[in-house]
């Protein structure tokens, strides 16, 4: 359905200001509550009115069963200071640029005003009212029980009438909810700056992600982590905040009814309807598995044993799988790591979500994990595709009964009582067969997206079987061996011309461009020779593909960003905002962040070059702890 179309906005290289400006204020924005009006609320507060009149202390941590959310209001924020607003987010939601300057905007994104609630007119028990979601999750491979939105509160949904995209707007760091467990419901400024910046960056480079509208510094609130820190709230938005962990919790509690409701809701209201989900691939598909127009779905995907009975829940599973495979392929191609890929941080829509100790690579090291506490390297760069599949298998287990029931899934007795004992073995066997078969699809979809992106990043318009080994792998191998910068390699390659690569000597000369500025690596001659050999192969491929330098350079510069919000950049911004009280740096960085493919931004040339340049000594490949 239309509301999925705006997901990544494909803004590569396009100036964000070229899209239509919004015309709404927060007040006039058309609002909805599709989530809360279709799914069961916490039975303790079944209506907005019951929650609104409840004393705050009764809305604190506890177990919530047979429900997907609780109506709960944000805690008021003393002295909110609006630090930054994303102009791209304003446009995508449909808000006027000037709205960000209004007092009302400031109060709403700080959690001080509930726009949809009015004591008198909402006295009857309906209406749109803030809510926190209930979910669980596997954390570092272990079942962690009920988690939920412990510090995120959704305000309302709104549909952009020009793009048809529906977003759920929520505040992160807005206070305690029934899902806060032992914690305070707050977020600190440093991690809020990180989430604000990276959400908008991933969107700008075309990676599906949750978004960020604004960042508020809560001047009046101090939050205790390892020390006292300033608090903050990010107003963020997404087409859906449902996670794999939402399904996990219903499954672990054996709540079959809730699982089915959740699956139906996801298909109908998040994916736009059952009819929009992938159907079986026609078995007579004439395309070979490896043709360049290969869609990523192997011919035998739906032909395995016992798969003749694929029902609509399997199609839902396949849709979720494809989106997640696509997103993780993009993370790999752009060197991004989430850092905590627990199932509660894995989106049902394949969005990058919940930014804690995330990072971009600096030099290429596949074993790098940005998470300081990740001693097993579970969430390292190279493990991400495997871990997303691990999470998908947990989701497959949650959907297993529905998928395994095959054509029996709508049988009244099955719906009310589950599978009959004599049919159980067959159901389990079928579900296992489906999940196994889906594993093949996952690999294929992942690889096809990964290859497509790497092909574009290397300036090629066609794919060849040998590219993977000869171009992709060998590039990454020499980057790793000589500790060269991952992002700079692609950007620098974008400026090469074929005439510079004609002789062995010229290739060795230009190979030095991959090194840090003014600083050759220890094995200078060896690395030059190795890079030169690779450049020879690359030039030969480029020549047969499209020898036009100008066209290729233009295409490459539009997919190989100049600016990357690396850990050291974010650390410096945090330091300048938090410790030095600077107020211009965040808006300045947002210029680079929203249009990262530009060559310059008209802010401050030497600063722009510094933020896009070599990683300062000892500031590469930093790690972050989970406390945020
Ligand atoms: P995260 O690691 O941010 O994905 O969080 C894992 C779980 O802990 C989620 O259920 C969060 O809502 C919850 N959580 C994390 N930090 C806090 C906090 N400061 N207050 C309340 N809940 C939190
Ligand atoms: Mg989380």
From TrEMBL:
One of its GO terms (molecular function) is AMPylase activity. One of its GO terms (biological process) is cell redox homeostasis. Residues 1-15, 24-39 have a biased composition (Polar residues). GO terms for cellular component: mitochondrion. Keywords: ATP-binding, Magnesium, Metal-binding, Nucleotide-binding, Nucleotidyltransferase, Transferase. Its cofactor is Mg(2+). The keyword Zinc-finger does not apply. This is Selenoprotein O. It comes from Paraphaeosphaeria sporulosa.
